[in-house]
Structures are given as C-alpha cells and as structure tokens.
Amino acid sequence: MERIVLDPTKCVGCRVCEGICSLVNEGESNPVKSRIKVVRTIENVILYSIPVFCQQCEIASCEAVCPRRAITRNTGGVLMVDEEKCIGCKLCEIACPVGAITVNPEKRVAIKCTQCATIGEPQCVKYCYPKALQLLSAEKVGKAKANAKAQKFIEMARRD
Amino acid sequence: MTMAGTILRVDLTRGSIEKEPTSKYVDDYIGGAAIGTKIFCDEVPPVTRALDPENMLMFNTGPLTGTLLGNKATIGAKTAERANHPYTFVGMGGQIASEIKFAGYDHIVIRGRSARPVYIYINNDTVEIRDASHLWGLDTHETQYKLRQELEDQDVQIACIGPAGENLVVYALILHDLDNTASRKVGSVMGSKNLKAVAVRGTKGLKIADPKLFLELFDEFYQDITTGRGSTFARQQHQEGISRQIAEGYQFAYGTELPKEIPPSPMMDFLKKFMVRPSGCAFCSFQCHQMFSVPGVGNGATTCVNYLGLLFQRMYDAHDFDLWWERTILANQYGIDSLSVEMIGSWLMELYRRGLITEADTDGIPMVRRSREAIIAVIEKIAKKEGFGKLFTDGIAPAAKKIGKDSLVYADQYDNATPYAWADYAPDLGAAAQWRTGEVERVPGFGDAYGNIPVFAEILGISFEEARDLIDSYCSDASERITGDRDVWKTPRYSKNTSRITIEKEDEILLSDVTGVCEARSSYLEHYGLRFGIDHFARWLRAATGINYTPERLREMGRKLRLLVDSYNVLCKRAIGEEPAVGMPFESLTVLPTAGRPKDPRELKKVQEDYCATRGYDPATGVPTRVALEELGLEDIADRLESTAAGSAAPHAGKAVRKTKRHR
Questions:
Q1: How close B287 comes to chain A (CA, Å)?
Q2: Do the beta carbons of residue B169 and residue B395 sit within 8 Å?
Q3: Can you give chain A as a three-state secondary structure string?
Q4: What pLDDT is attached to residue A149?
Q5: Which of A2, B93, B117, B400 sits 20 to 30 Å CA-CA off B453?
Q6: Virtual CA dihedral for B473, B476, B481, B482, nearest 10 degrees?
Q7: Inter-chain residue contact A127 with B207, CB threshold 8 Å
Q8: Which of B624, B581, B656, B641 is nearest to B82 (CA)?
C-alpha cells in the first residue's frame, strides 16, 4: 500500500500542491477546495510551512463517526467520501485529528485526499519540486529513516 | 473563466466603497496593467502629481493570476521623479496577488486621501476602511504580524508601507510577506493617502475553462523546468540560492578572456553558511527567493543575491556580506528601496572623496567607502527623514541642487530619475534604442547572458567554454526565433533586426503584466534557456478563460499598452509645461562599464529610428504618432495629444499646476 509521506524539512511553501489538487479534483484554482493545505506561519521573519493532508489512518476517526457511513476504504486502503451519501454534518471535520477533512460550503459535502484515485497517481507528489511529498510504501518509511540515521554513524565510524 | 469579475474602488477621502464589473474593459484591454492603465488614463488628470489625493494607487491582477501559471499583480500609480514615466507600474507577487483574485477582485483602485491613518480590510465581499493609528510607525514586518494577530487569521495577506512610505520618501516601497516588494516609488504614494496597509482574505475559487488542457500546459511548463532547458535556471534557484558565481561571471562577461580559475567569493560563503530555505510566490515551483538567518544581524529573505550582492560590492567597494545583509533587512523593515539608497550612498562617498562634501554635511559621519556607519546611516536617515537624510526625500536632482558644485555629474543617473539600478546590464544597441523614448523600465537584451557562464558550468558539470557555447546557442535560438537571423544579437553594429529583438522582448514583458504571469516566464530569461512567451501566454489564456486569444492579438495588446502609457506620460509632462526629454544623451551611455554598449552614435541613431518607426513614435520628439495610435483604437488619446501639442490651439491644456501641500 502506498501512502503520501511528508518530509517537513523540504517544504518551501510554494503551494503548487494546493493549486494542482484543486485543479484536478474540482476544475478550479482554489486553495479552499484543495484536499492538501499548506499551513504557513511567519515568525521572526522566517517562513515555516507544513502541508497537511489525510494520513489515511488505519483506525479512521472520520469513518467511525460518520452517521451516514459515507466514508469507506477503496481497494488501495484509501478512505473515500461518497458524495451522494454525505450530508455535510461536519462530524468528520471535528473528529479528524489532523484537520485533513473539511466540509466545503459550496459543495456541501466533505472533501478529503483520495490520493487522486481516479487518476491513479497523486498529483501533489508528482509536482512537488523540492520532493517534500513522496509516494512511498507505508512499510518502507520507517526503515528508510532508520537507514538514513544509521548511515551517519557509519560515516563517523569510517573516519576513525 | 479565471477572471474574478469585479473592480473594487475605494475612495479614502469620501470613505466610500464601490464595485463595478471588469467585463466592460476585457474586450479592448484583456486585463492586468492594460485595464489599469486605461482606467488611469481616463480618470486621472495628467496634471495630477504623485502625492495628490487625485492620484490612483491600483493593484491590477491578470486573468492568470491565482492559477498555477500566474501569480502576479502590477501596482500602478503616478510616481514622483521619473523623468519620462511619471505614470508607471511595477510587479508584486507573493501571496497577495492571488488572494485578491480569490476574494473576488481583478483590480483594486484606491483614490483620495484619508484624514487619519487607515488600512483597507478585504474579506471576500466585505470591504472596510479601518483605523490604523495603532500601526502607524511600525516597520513592515511588525505591521503584518500585528494585523494577523488582531484579525486572528494567519492566512490574511497584507501589503504595507514602513516608516519610509509614511515619511513620503520618494524611494519608499510597498512590502508584502517576507520580501515581496513593489518599488518604483509607489510606497510614498500609499503614504500620501495615509494608507498603512491593504489586508486581503479570499475563499472564492477561479473556474478553469478547460481544466484538462490547463493541466497539460502546466505539465509542459513543469517538465521544462525539471528536465528541460529551463531546468538549469530552476536548479540554480534551489542550489543554495545561487550556485557558482554570477559575480565572477559579470566580471569577465564583458572582457575578452575567460578566467582559468574561480576566485574566492564572499557571497558564496555567505550563502552556504546562512541560507535557510528557498521561498517565493504562490503556486510557483521556482521559489526564487532565499531566506537567511544570520546570528547577530537578523532574519529575512531576499532575491537576486547575485546581482544585489554584486552591486553592493561595486558601489561601496565593500565585501563584508554580513553588512550587506544588515542593510538588506533594514531596508525591508523601513520599506525603502535598498538599491536606490545604495546608489545615493555611493554618490555621497564619491562627493566626499572629491572633497565636494565633508562630514559636516552628513551629520558628522564621514562618507567613506566600506564604512558600516556610513552605509547604515544612509538607509536610516533617508527612511526616517532625519538629519542629512532629509536632503533626499524628493530624490537625487533636488538634493544635487542643494549641494551644488556640479555634484549631479557624479550621480550616474539620468535627468531626475532614480539612478538606474539596472544600468550595469550591458545595453546592447537594441536596448539602448529603448532609451530613445525614455523607457528605462526594463532592459530586455541578452547583454548579461555571459554572466551565467560559471553558474552553468557548475550546475551542468561542464567547462566554461562549453557553458559559453550553450548560452550562445540559447541566445542564437532566440535571435533566430524573432528575426530569422542567428547572429544579430551579438553584434554591436547596426542591423535592421536589432530593434526587433528589443520590441519583441518588451512586448513579452508587458504582456506578463497584462496576463498576471511573472516575467521570469517570458523571454526575460531566454538566455538561461527558460523560454515561455507570447505563444505560451495565448495558450494558457485560452485554457484558463475560454476566450480565444491568439499570439497576434496579444502582440497587438503589448504594443497598445506601450503606446497608451507613453502617450499619457507625454500628456503628464505637458501638463507641467515640459516636453518629454528625448532619449538618453549618448554620453550618459558611455559611463556604463560594459562591453556591449554602442560605440558609434550614428549606429545607435539608426537603430533608434528603426525602433521608432516600428513602434510608432516620431523619432525627433519621442511622441507616439497619430497613425500608430489610431491603428490600435487609441483615437481618444491621439486627440488629447494633438490638442496639447506646441503650436496647437490649447498647447497647455491641463497645464494648470496645482500647488500641493503635504498634510500630516
């Protein structure tokens, strides 16, 4: 199963992910309708930016709380909102621990990241120039980080 | 259709808010700076001065602003002190240009003067003029921070002035976000209206007419900058900001030999040590700004480190980059154009060196090159309008008059215009022809192409000779594209094709102002291999708006905008009893230390005549001709020009010079 994985040190706050997401999913340029949202904060004249998007929780609060059972998993394990069933009650928005699902007032239904299920390839990953967003096997993420850290120790040892 | 649909008008004298549909201008003026200029020309009397309440301050977005292919607004106003271009416009990107569209507006037109300090708050349909007395006096970052706190919204986008704009210093700018600025003197216009900030929040979207095609076009752009010809430029921006040194590149670019070794670079060391991350404008992959955090000096962002750092080194003969950074963030905080101030500082140092001034003239501070005290004092005193800084509130020419002693000769500038910051770019013959009509806004030539040789060599892992050949090929491709002749770009001698290159590039840059596309995505950077232009703009516009724009239509619009601006500026000069100064005197061009400069005044004259003939100007007067204006549907302004011409029935119509008092 592949998931979108964030390397927060690489995000530069360009918001291309927001632009491409709303374009392919809604046919609009509209950050509000993007399913990935870049949180930008400026502190002491430095910009900090982190994209927030659905983590496709293994135990999903949104799925559990939906009174219409409008949220189910597809074959890739991605949580999908059935827009026909959704009544826009916003309980999922309240329950989500990361703020990745929102009820869009214009559409009147909940929208969330589907990893671009209809296209087959998450477009935000494709167009993230600094590679802050990557598509990785969920199992591999932890191991990749462990390897990277271990490599540093190996380099130190080599110097001795 | 990606236009928001509404023009927002705010009158600060009456405290009124009005809205009108953009649609009435779109057929004839498409968008952006063109619609803004049309409104300005129709509604602002030419006699209006920069700091008069009747002056307009406009934020003009284009049809592509707020999409993946555009993110720019152009800010237009009558500004003080420009020789031939009292009415001008300047780009500002960041986040705010797109946010204005998301709030539902294509243009914000601000007029009048508030009796007390205010800011304009825009949240979708809600538009309010609010008290800003608690913000007056704050620097540009403090203002944004405080407003975001009190509005309880981190996503509200703010453009504001600092103390320099409040003090009506002519070099004041409007600043947004970390370091997105609108310079060209618009900061003092905003200050004259007692307007501290414009705060915008928008949540409406822009419907793309053909989303599938738009995605393909964006993909084409993205592929080019990741794996295509544009990728070298993109990588340059993302490799610690600027890779191998354009500074050294400029040094040898106009010489005859390539250096065997790269000399050490204090700029490169500074970049490696202190750069935090790239930053930039909304929806753009380039992120061509760089954030720096320097212990003991401060944080912030800037762009064009290569160019600005180089100028700093040249102007001040100073190579301490911590000092360069200190002056950079200070200038941003005060909201003043660091380049203009730097040129004034350098001028004062030259006068001091020649004994024309002493430290008594500069508050006891010796104006010595490399002096930190002098470099910082120049920024602070001018921005705060203190001490000797007061001399420069209205610009260089009035200051030179007060100093006397032929001091203006050493200022390296033209008429009363700000020392032309880009004067160091090689003005090839074509670009020099631009100056026939006093146009010094941007220099769209290939002159600085060779400055990129070391950058290309390092990024691509090739030799200097190979890098030069590659750049040669990009420039030759461009030359061929525009004129059919691969070699015309590099010859300093007259060719009938020289002016065609200048005109095409001018049009592309103007069209970037009309469409809302950053000029980096035009032929501005063609010598970097980055090539998007009028043909692309037409495709992008069609996919975004659903309107069948063609390259021919766009080229015509570029020409129309240019002639409209210049005609209106002629009216402005006449309204104060002057004729436009005709071109830069040839002698001034020779002070520019670049090899591409024209060597023979007769060759320059021939290019100028070609340029004027193609563009539609009278070469003797620099005034647009009636024939050219009528071809473009500008009969109205042709009539106005005719009725104010010398020897006409009413030669000084609109001349009445109104005395203005600067209220505080």
A1: 7
A2: no
A3: CEEEEECCCCCCCCCHHHHHHHHHHHCEECHHHCCCEEEEEEECCEEEEEEECCCCCCCCHHHHHCCCCCEEECCCCCEEECCCCCCCCCHHHHHCCCCCCEEECCCCEEECCCCCCCCCCCHHHHCCCCCCEEEEEHHHHHHHHHHHHHHHHHHHHHHC
A4: 81
A5: B93
A6: 150
A7: no
A8: B581
pLDDT digits (tens, 9 = 90+) for B387-443: 999 999 988 878 888 888 888 777 765 444 444 433 333 345 555 555 555 444 454
Nearest to B172 by CA among B450, B392, B423, B482: B392
Q: Which residues contact A105 (CB under 8 A, 6 or more apart)?
A: none
Question: What is the SS3 assignment for B206?
Answer: strand
For B393-448, the DSSP string reads TT-HHHHHHHH-TTGGGGG---TTSPP-GGGGS---HHHHHHGGGT--S---SSTT
**Residue ranges of chain A with per-residue pLDDT less than 70:** 138, 160
Q: Which of B78, B85, B22 is nearest to B55 (CA)?
A: B78
Give the B-side interface with A, CB within 8 Å. 2, 66-68, 102, 141, 144-145, 154-155, 177-178, 203-208, 211, 214-215, 218, 222, 225-226, 234, 238, 276-280, 282-285, 287, 291, 293, 298-301, 329
The per-residue pLDDT for range B143-190, each reduced to its tens digit, is 999 999 999 999 999 999 999 999 999 899 999 999 999 987 899 999
Query: From CA B469, how far away is CA B598, in angstroms rounded?
Result: 24
**Integer angstrom CA distances of residue B621 from B438, B552, B589, B610, B625:** 11, 28, 19, 14, 10
What average pLDDT does range B539-561 have in this prediction? 96
pTM of the model: 0.92
Q: What is the CATH code of the structural domain delimited by B6-201?
A: 3.60.9.10
Q: Spell out the CATH class of A54-112.
A: alpha beta
Neighbours of B486 (CB within 10 A): 16
**What digits encode the pLDDT tens for the residues A102-115?**
999 999 999 999 99
Render pLDDT for B459-513 as a digit per residue (tens, 0 to 9): 888 888 898 899 889 988 988 988 898 888 777 677 888 788 888 888 888 999 9
Quick check: A29 and B155 CB within 8 A? Answer: no
CB A53 within 8 A of CB A4: yes
List chain B domain ranges: 6-201, 261-422, 423-644
Q: Decide: helix, strand or coil at residue B339.
A: helix
Alpha-carbon span B122 to B202, nearest angstrom: 8
Tokens at A100, concatenated: 């990745």
pLDDT tens for each residue of B283-341: 999 898 999 999 999 999 998 776 777 778 777 877 788 999 999 999 999 999 988 88
Is the CATH code 1.10.10 the one for domain B423-644? no
The backbone torsions φ and ψ at residue B236, rounded to the nearest 5 degrees and listed phi first, read -60, -40
> How much is the ipTM here?
0.93
Q: How do the domains of chain A map onto residue ranges?
A: 54-112
Task: For B261-422, give the CATH class.
Answer: mainly alpha
- Asked if B146 and B136 touch (Cβ cutoff 8 Å), the reply is no
Torsion-angle region of residue B578: left (phi > 0), alpha (psi -120 to 50) or beta?
beta
Tokens (6 digits) for B234: 């993109």
**Angle CA B395–B42–B506, to nearest 5:** 60
Q: Are A22 and A28 in contact (CB under 8 A)?
A: yes
**CA–CA dist B615, B629 (Å, integer):** 10
**Could you tell me the CA-to-CA distances from B420 to B184, B309, B608 in Å, in that order?**
11, 16, 20
CA distance B127 to B138: 23
**A with B: how many residue pairs have Cβ under 8 Å apart?**
101
Rg of chain A over all Cα atoms, to the nearest angstrom: 18
